[in-house]
Amino acid sequence: MKGLYFQQSSTNEEITFVFQERENLPVTEDNYVKLQVKACALSQINTKLLAEMKMEKEFFPVGREVAGIVLDVGSKVSFFQPDDEVVGILPLDSEDPGLCEAVRVHEHYLVHKPEKVTWTEAAGTIRDGLRVYTALHYLSHLSPGKSVLIMDGASALGTIAIQLAHHRGAKVISTACSLEDKQFLERFRPPIARVIDVSNGKAHVAESCLEETGGLGVDIVLDAGVRLYSKDDEPAEKSQLLPHKHDIITLLGVGGHWVTTEENLQLDPPDSHCLFLKGAAVAFLNDEVWNLSNVQQGKYLSTYLKRCDGEVINWCF
Fold it and tell me: For position 246, what pLDDT does the model report?
């Protein structure tokens, strides 16, 4: 049985992907599940995070979002039985690559796959879906009637975020990074309240959001990165498409929540004072937050997938 691994050079500059012959999986015991893989998503490998967590090794398994059929369960498994259809995310320290015929995984990293969701949809959306649910439910407490700004709404993360926000009864504003993205977002049903085209660098995100909300500002911001410095000090592409951190603070309403994916966000004292006056909060969306607690992950995954068993999952690959 072969599996796909990546090998990083000693200089960390070159990555090679190799297929390796794997030994047969050990006997399934305790809380572990043997899973026949039906679909696996390919997501970016965060080599920087692996280095920070001291998890570097010569060969690292590829593919962590998997969907498949349970073949066998250990004696302490309580959530699954053979022939169950499941989906989940393999932990960072998993020895098994998702791109393989079968994997061995702890039951807390899996949930039941809704019947209406295909193998490909389950594996392809579980990661971004979990990120969005974490951002909107746990980090910003989205509720009906709230206004939400979703940056880069045509991305995989943005598309799911828009659908979940609409599902909760929120008013959605989004940005588009190209004409094609703008046309895509304008076809959403229910419609997005305003699509801001930032592709030409002329649109003012803060002004547009304040205008749309009658000067009150938005309740929740889910960014796709922000500029920390002036345009002259940032790469040309980043300075054109991403808003400055001051714009985000300006458009945020009283008591608002800013959920950021910018891991190196720097807030100066005047920025913090402005957020203090608004009673606003900043939360960081960590892509690997579910690895911090596998029990919490199971709760996140099951809640998200229950909501996926219907209209929320209806977006195109």
Answer: 93
